[in-house]
Amino acid sequence: MSPSSETAHGQRLVIVESPAKAKTIKGYLGPGYIVEASVGHIRDLPSTAAEVPDKYTGEVRRLGVDVDHDFAPIYVVNADKKSQVSKLKSLLAESDELFLATDEDREGEAIAWHLQQVLKPKVPVHRMVFHEITKSAIQEAVANPRELNQRLVDAQETRRILDRLYGFEVSPVLWKKVMPKLSAGRVQSVATRLVVERERERMAFRTASYWDLVGTFGTGRTPVDAANPETFGARLAAVDGKRIASGRDFGPDGRLKAASANTLHLDEQAARQLAAALEQTAFAVRSVESKPYRRSPYAPFRTTTLQQEASRKLGFGAKRTMQVAQKLYENGFITYMRTDSTTLSDTAIAAARAQVTQLYGADYLPDAPRTYASKVKNAQEAHEAVRPSGDRFRTPAETGLTGDDFKLYELIWMRTVASQMKDAVGQSVTVRVGGTSADGRDVEFSASGKIITFHGFLKAYVEGADDPNAELDDRERRLPQVAQGDPLAAERITPEGHATKPPARYTEASLVKELEDREIGRPSTYASIIDTIIQRRYVFKKGTALVPSFLSFAVVNLLEKHFGRLVDYDFTAKMEDDLDRIAAGEAQSVPWLKRFYFGEGDGHAAGGAAEAGNGDGDHLGGLKELVTDLGAIDAREISSFRVSDDITLRVGRYGPYVERASAVEGEPGQRADIPDELPPDELTVELAEELLAKPSGDFELGPDPVSGNMLVAKDGRYGPYVTEILPEGTPKTGKNAVKPRTASLFKTMSLDTVTLEDALRLLSLPRVVGTDAEGAEITAQNGRYGPYLKRGTDSRSLTSEDQLFTITLDEALAIYAQPKQRGRAAAAPPLKELGTDPVSERPVVVKDGRFGPYVTDGETNATLRKDDDVETITPERGYELLAEKRARGPVKKAAKKAPAKKTAAKKTAAAKTTAGTTAAKKTAAKKTAAKKTAAKKTATKTAATKTAAAKTTAAKKTTAKKAAAGKTAATDEG
Asked: Measuring CA to CA, which residue among 809, 627, 712 is closest to residue 174?
């Protein structure tokens, strides 16, 4: 009997990853089922040593993996998921069956396995899998569950351990030798190297100039229609049988390639002379070559092609594409969006073919369904391509979607429907035009055309191109109908100059394609990889181009010189093959990890990690040996790059700068900071000289008339400022350390015009404006967000910097007499709007609160985590934070006690102490009341300290129930 049958089985618990997915599935299952979200991973390797249980020490504590005992991972329940785990356990205790309905990929299988390990169910467990969230698909998945696939779990665990060892062993090397807080990763470091190598190619590139001629030729016939034009353009192809050199004939050094030595390289003078010699030339058609043109439809989307097309057509980054696709999937609009496959199910093919007939007619429908074989190595063919869900595709207009959701769904829908349409057919034509110049040279021009006689699938969809100058598949170029020997008149012959261009920088789309072509990493991870290298400041975006920072040059330089194999493209691809072999059961994970980490076994074994040695031939040691001896790594050398004979670019701990060595040995050289977002290929010798020629920023303004210390103006990394030079011998560290007074220049000031008087005024801040009627001091201060007044903890913004010196006490009191505004406006607008929460169905916004930015739907507030950013937070992340906060429940407040009688205020200090001690032994409500009472008395600090001590002692002796309650309270407050 199937688990979905109405039996006496009672309640069934279905666990998925996200609240949005849970809501959609719940609507399809009906009564008898509880659908709850795990809200992502509930258990993982510890992120810090503090999360590791106390019984583990040494390397195990640092890595979170016991490398000496078969690489056993140390899993911990994420701190922010403990309350959700408790909720799941509670729901499971009331259920008769458990369905693990996480995504059907390695990561989803691992999440399901962790749920089973943590929840320890005593009821039947089923693995429920589906590729789309529709009613029929969900009901079929419930009726036909399977067992957990342990091979997929092991493969994912091996990847996780491998990435942990790589990251936790190599990243500290970067901290020590380049800059703190950097990271290295198995795929992210290789992706960064790709971007850096492309920039190196651009920096080494030398432009070549070349010329040719463009002619406009007329047939002399009156045009009948647009299909048979009177004139056409052609480009010079050969002179005296020699082909004219074009851009492809030149190398990156600006010279002709060896294979192109027999071409004719025209310069401007030669081109103009030839054009003049052709002014009176009679031309004729020498040949007409016609070939049939046929273009087949593009395969349906897989993850990477979806990311590439969304980038080209919609301007979406990979991360944005996946976030929107995730939302579409969870709400039942498309199939699972992380897939290597281009196959369509029979149901999907039937739906697509039905829409072809309905929308375009039977003439556009091929006789037999089209099938697509995946070109991706180790593609999981059990998955489908990314397509609209259901057995009947909704047209974009029928979905009710808007914004990004609509745009991406439309793209997926068009691509899927087009994949089941007929080929586009037509004719391609090449016409050669010849003549003899006045000086006797034989010249030949060439023109090519394309006519599409049946557009087929191009009626529905045309693929974009990474090159903005590339011609798309649906473009036609019509030539007049001419025959060999037909005379032509040259209406115009124009010389045209060209210059070769450096290789284009990667975009997100082209980097995704490059990684996939090289078989590096898994396509499902590319979006997060690109996001990581941007967040780490290894790469920044200039338009759509990915530009490497100077920091990434230093990181890649270190990795190439000392960890060569770890960033070798072929080695990384081989590791991916090995991980796939482990997933297929063809290899064992523990021996493989041993070879990678310790270098044990045959170093020449396929994919053997002993190959992960240095690029200089030392390939016998594993990763552990490589990171143990760092003495050979010269931190200054790997972060230094020659600009000219006497100028060097250096990447320092506070950013990049150029340096010219001092003529006097031992003396500091001349330095100048480099703008953070200067593309490396734009740092020329001339720009470096210009930066060094600028004033250093240390302008002496004069001595302080009171202290006698010299005041100077400087240009710092965070803007211009003034400071004082303390006398020699002034202690800079320890208890008696003295810090020089420092103040930022106003926005209206500049280093060129700031005076000693300005500096003295700036250093005089904060200024005491006066005191109010109660004796509270009011000061005027310049802060990070501008000028403001401060009275105790009450701050009020000022409208201009000049007010810092001019505002009077009466004006200040008048400001404080006004009701305090939230921020700088009566009603501060939200920092960002995220959309409608799938659970509460209320609008979610990001606001700025007293303790930092937070998301809210008007009912629930959730503070942004330290890794979240207002600018980059996504709607899904906002919904996830709110879901986690709801899962924890409201913060439990202690019960209020009736106000104490006035006589209680007259008790002695001894009574206070006794009350504090007694309170530690009583209930939480009494503790709170005692604390509140103590707060009203004079000896507040003493009483609070004693009470806290009593609580700590009592906590160690309390019952398990009280301990659990304490943890819940801590979670709520955190």
From this structure: 627
Per the DSSP assignment, residues forming a β-bridge with 66 are 72
pLDDT at 225: 60
Per-residue tokens: 883 = 């879901």
What does the buried/exposed string (b/e) look like for 581-593 if buried means 16 or more CB atoms within 10 Å of the residue's CB?
Answer: bbbeeebebeebb
User: Residue 547 burial by CB count (10 A; 0-12/13-18/19+): exposed, middle or buried?
Assistant: buried
Tokens of 246: 């074009």
Instruction: Provide the angle, in degrees to the nearest 10, between the axes of the packed helices 569-583 and 589-598.
Output: 160
Task: State the Cα angle at 970 between 967 and 972, rounded to 5°.
Answer: 110
Q: Is 336 a catalytic residue?
A: yes
Considering the chain, what percentage of its residues have pLDDT values greater than 90? 51
Q: Report the pLDDT value the prediction gives residue 957, as an integer from 0 to 100.
A: 40
DSSP, res 54? T
Distance CA 863, CA 874 (A): 14
CB 526 within 8 A of CB 307: yes
Nearest to 521 by CA among 553, 481, 569: 569
Helix/strand/coil percentages in the chain, nearest 5: 40, 20, 40
Residue 651, judged by CB atoms within 10 A of its CB (0-12, 13-18, 19+), counts as buried
Counting Cβ atoms within 10 Å, is residue 56 exposed (0-12), middle (13-18) or buried (19+)? middle
Neighbours of 76 (CB within 10 A): 15
Q: Is the backbone of residue 181 left (phi > 0), alpha (psi -120 to 50) or beta?
A: left
* 229 closest CA partner among 478, 4, 416: 478
Q: How far is CA 907 from its chain centroid?
A: 62
43 has which bridge partners?
A: 77
Q: Which has the closest alpha carbon to 28: 114, 115, 128?
A: 128
Per-residue confidence (pLDDT) for residue 105, from 0 to 100: 84
pLDDT at 921: 40
Residues near 286 by beta carbon (within 8 Å), at least 6 away in sequence: 432, 433, 434, 444, 484
Cα 919 from Cα 912, distance rounded (Å) = 10
Q: How long a stretch of residues is the chain?
A: 974
Two structure tokens written together for 650: 């250096």
Dist CA 740 CA 743 (whole Å): 10
Cα(433)–Cα(534) distance, integer angstroms: 52
d(CA 488, CA 220): 7
Euclidean distance between the first and the last CA atom of the chain, given in angstroms as a whole number: 46
Per annotation, catalytic residue among 166, 210, 298, 336: 336
Distance CA 104, CA 522 (A): 15
Residue 702 bridge partners (DSSP): 711
Cβ-defined contacts of 614-622 (< 8 Å, 24+):
614/561, 614/562, 614/563, 614/564, 614/565, 615/560, 615/561, 615/564, 615/565, 615/568, 616/564, 619/565, 622/595, 622/596, 622/597, 622/598
Q: What is the pTM of this model?
A: 0.71
Closest CA to 139 of 14, 7, 37: 14
Q: Are strands 710-716 and 699-703 parallel, antiparallel or unpaired?
A: antiparallel
Contact indicator for 433, 486 with CB cutoff of 8 Å: no
pLDDT value at residue 966: 36
Taking 70 as the pLDDT cut, the residues of the chain under it are 1-9, 222-227, 374-382, 466-471, 474, 600-621, 666-668, 695-698, 717-718, 784, 821-828, 850-851, 866-867, 887-974
Token representation of residue 892: 């439990």
SS3 (DSSP) at 776: coil
How buried is 553 (Cβ within 10 angstroms: 0-12 exposed, 13-18 middle, 19+ buried)?
buried
Q: What is the structure's pLDDT at 821?
A: 66
